[in-house]
Amino acid sequence: MTTSTAAGATAFTVSPVLPSGETDLQSTSDSVDSGVSPNLRGDRTPQPEHIRHMLFGTLAAVQTTIRHLHHLGYAEPNDWSRPISTGRANEVMAILTKRIRLG
C-alpha cells in the first residue's frame, strides 16, 4: 500500500515481515486457502507479527511525518531508522519495523 502525506513524504507498508526481516508472501495465500490464520497457535492465542513501514521524501518531509505519527501515538521517533540516502537528489528513506498482534 502506498500513502502520500501532507508533508510530501511517501509511505509504503509491506506486510507481513518474518522475524528474520524477510517478507513472507506465502502466508497471505495460506490464510485464505486454509481458512485458519497462520499466525494462530493451536490454542488460538494470537502470535505477534511484524509490519514494516518505509518513508521516502526530503529529509524535512520524512522527519515531519515521523513526528506526526508520534503525535498520533503510533510510533516513537527513535524506533525509526536513521534517514538513509536513496541516491536521488534530496531524497532519503526511513524504515520502521513494528510488532503487532492480530485479533
Biggest sheet, in brief? 5 strands, antiparallel
Strand content: 25-35%
Major β-sheet strand ordering = 1-2-3-5-4
- State the low-pLDDT regions, or none: 22-34
If you had to describe this structure to a student in words, what would you say it looks like?
With 103 residues, this protein is an alpha+beta fold. The chain is built from two helices and five strands, in the order ββαβαββ. The protein has a five-stranded antiparallel beta sheet with strand order 1-2-3-5-4. The longest helix has 13 residues, at 59-71. It is elongated, with a radius of gyration of 16 Å.
How would you summarize the topology of this molecule?
Layout: E1 2-4, E2 10-17, H1 26-34, E3 48-57, H2 59-71, E4 84-85, E5 92-101
Antiparallel strand pairs: 1-2, 2-3, 3-5, 4-5
Structural key phrases:
103 residues, alpha+beta, 2 helices
Short synopsis of the structure:
The protein has 103 residues and is an alpha+beta fold. It is built from 2 helices and 5 strands; from the N terminus they run ββαβαββ. Strands 1-2-3-5-4 form a 5-stranded antiparallel sheet.
